[in-house]
Amino acid sequence: MNQNQQQDLPREVRVGVIGVGQMGADHVARISARIKGARVSVVTDYFQDKAQELADSVPGCRVVATAEELIAAEDVDAVLIASPGKFHKDQAIACIEARKPVLCEKPLAMNPQDAYAVVEAEKASGGRYVSVGFMRRFDAEYAELKDAIDSGELGQISVINCKHRNATTLPGFVDSMMVYDSAVHEIDAIHYFLDEQITEVQAVLPLPGPRADEGQHDPMLLLFRTESGRIVTDELYVNTDSGYEVRTEVLGSEGISTIGMGITRVTTQKAGGSWGGAIPVDFRPRFVAAYDAEVQAWVAAVLDGSNVAERSATAWDGYLAAATCEAAETALTTPGFVPVSVQPRP
Predict the structure, then answer these.
(1) What integer is the mean pLDDT of 40-67?
(2) Cα separation of 23 and 41, whole Å?
């Protein structure tokens, strides 16, 4: 990086946020209260009154009518996309064309073809602008487990067992949503932990639990096979009526490691030899520190000119997740393993 490029870098990243629903509003609060080196300068949302109400609570923040206007704004250095997933592809490509770093909440796109279009657009730009919001990469336990795998401490890894549990789901949460909204995080975690692609996936559908909606297969088990022949299981149970939990167990030849057991890292011993701890009702308390670390790393990368943080999921990671989810959705109605079709990396 030359001296002129260094002088062009912002001293404070002015972030534009597209979409101020649950996740967007959380990110606005995060950047405003807990992130160094950044402030929210512009927001937009389909519901303009909601966007205005939020902007009024953030000093120096204004509202624009469209995502296109926000991306082009002179007082926006970087963009955080938290709009509905169907808009992500076009908005991410617009950020690339505007040469503005973008942190896009998952999914990168609604299907592999659109996600690949983002990958190609970034390749054509000659730079790296896209980070995808798979926040577990910034969770302390996930990072520690990743280090243990990479260092060889656990020896040869043959099997990984994952568990993903929610207290309840909204009406209409069908089987495919269990793949695209829940299992997608384990899918990215597989790529993160093992640095290899998933080649095929199988769905196993047990007897549905008593709280499953009509037609919903809950719990559900997904089996993934990777390039080297490793097997990863993902047990999904999204109507436990208890709380939000994610666990990962790695079976290695030199040791077995498990994360996600502590949740809040506070346990209470009770009379009779039992013990218990608090379980969060949803994902936000569990991963609030990971979200903070993810956004802080992204802001730091923008400030130093590297555009994307080293540990962040890239556009390619977003594409791999989309391709694997498509195969997993097919597996819901197809016996045996379904191959994951992946185009060449540009």
Answers:
(1) 97
(2) 17
| Dist. CA 247–CA 256, nearest whole Å | 13
- Contact residues for 47 (Cβ-Cβ < 8 A; gap 6+): none
Query: In the structure encoding, which two tokens stand for residue 255, read together?
Result: 């040791």
Give the tokens for residue 187.
Answer: 């899918």
Task: Please indicate whether residue 274 or residue 320 has the higher confidence score (pLDDT).
Answer: 320
CA distance 92 to 200: 28
| CA 22 and chain centroid, separation | 15
Taking only the tens place, the pLDDT of each residue in 296-318 is: 999 999 998 877 777 899 999 99
290 and 105 Cβ atoms separated by less than 8 Å: no
Concatenating the DSSP letter of every residue in 121-154 gives: HHHHHTS--EEE--GGGGSHHHHHHHHHHHHTTT
Model pLDDT, residue 8: 61
| Res 280: pLDDT | 72
Q: How many CB atoms lie within 10 A of CB 66?
A: 11
| 167-197 residue pLDDT tens | 999 889 999 999 999 999 999 999 999 999 9
Q: Tell me if 86 sits within 8 A of 114, measured CB to CB.
A: no
Query: Sign of the CA dihedral 333, 334, 336, 342?
Result: negative
Evaluate whether 79 touches 16 at the Cβ level (below 8 Å).
yes
Question: Is the Cα torsion angle 109, 113, 115, 118 positive or negative in sign?
Answer: negative
Kindly state the tokens that stand for 236. 């999904």
Give the sheet arrangement for strand 130-132, strand by strand. 62-63, 38-44, 13-18, 78-81, 102-104, 130-132
Query: Bridge partners of 232?
Result: 160, 224
Residue 312 makes CB contacts below 8 A (sequence gap 6+) with: 103, 131, 132, 137, 294, 297, 298, 301
Contact assessment for residue 129 and residue 302, using Cβ atoms and an 8 Å cutoff: no
**Cβ distance 230 to 194 under 8 Å?**
yes
pLDDT at 3: 45
DSSP symbol at 77:
S
Question: Is the pLDDT confidence value at 115 over 70?
Answer: yes
Which has more pLDDT, 284 or 313? 313
pLDDT (0 to 100) of residue 268: 44
Is the pTM higher than 0.85?
yes
